[in-house]
Amino acid sequence: MLKLQQLRISSSLLSPKKFCNFFPPKNPSSVITINNKPILNLSSQMVFHTTPSHASKYLFRQLFEKDSSTYTYLLADVSHPQKHAVLIDPVDKTVDRDLSLIHNLGLKLIYAVNTHVHADHVTGTGMLKSKVSGVISVISKASNAKADLLVESGDRIVVGDLVLEVLPTPGHTVGCVTYVTGDGPDQPQPRIAFTGDALLIRGCGRTDFQGGSSAELYKSVHSQIFSLPEETLVYPAHDYKGFTVSTVGEEKQYNPRLTKDKETFKSIMENLNLAYPKMIDVAVPANMVCGLQDPVPTTH
Length: 300
Description:
By secondary structure, the chain is an alpha/beta fold. It is 18% helix and 28% strand. It is built from 6 helices and 17 strands. The longest helix has 12 residues. The radius of gyration is 18 Å and the shape is globular.
């Protein structure tokens, strides 16, 4: 079992001519604003600059699994000689799609990371490990699940020059974490928070199973996520209404649950009357052991 404060695979020299290249859904007229000031134009190709004179090029893809409405995120440092990459919240049903994309883009997958033990789908980390040699699975230590690397508050996952910092955000489950990109001059700007089910776009994850707590979730979001810069981009693990991205500033202003006071929030969460998750009895046991599947021939 790996346990490190910082597991750094490698680093590379920064190129002053490179930039952060992101590809969201095509909607060229959409503009995100903070305090009535536009901060982001959602076009078919978004460019996130780090500093005017010094930047590092990173690749980003937001991928979708329709049955569970799950987002998987692919990030890579394409300035690194081997183009090291990480997948956040992979799904078993879409592992082949993800690996095909990784192959097409010439990337080397290093990490398969989960924000928490999911109840609505089986994680793809086990399949990824069985199909690709050397992939390191990651989940929080607090989740009590199995993985190669168990992370805690303050840990950092480093892929090339890309840094993902670990923020504890329990409440939806006891082991939820948020991964947020670093704040250094060589990191994507604005920062990016992968919030799992803790913070959704105009919502949040339920708190009535897997050790969930509405009081804990409220505290987590306000202390760990809402304390980030308002322009920080929010990419959740799910969306059920067609949204793809938000910002910390937007959610602080418009989230219909988390803009309320703590007691009102607790009352809202206690009266959702949601159906029992249809996949929970299959997904949770599998995800506690890294979503391990039957052995599959390894490719290199």
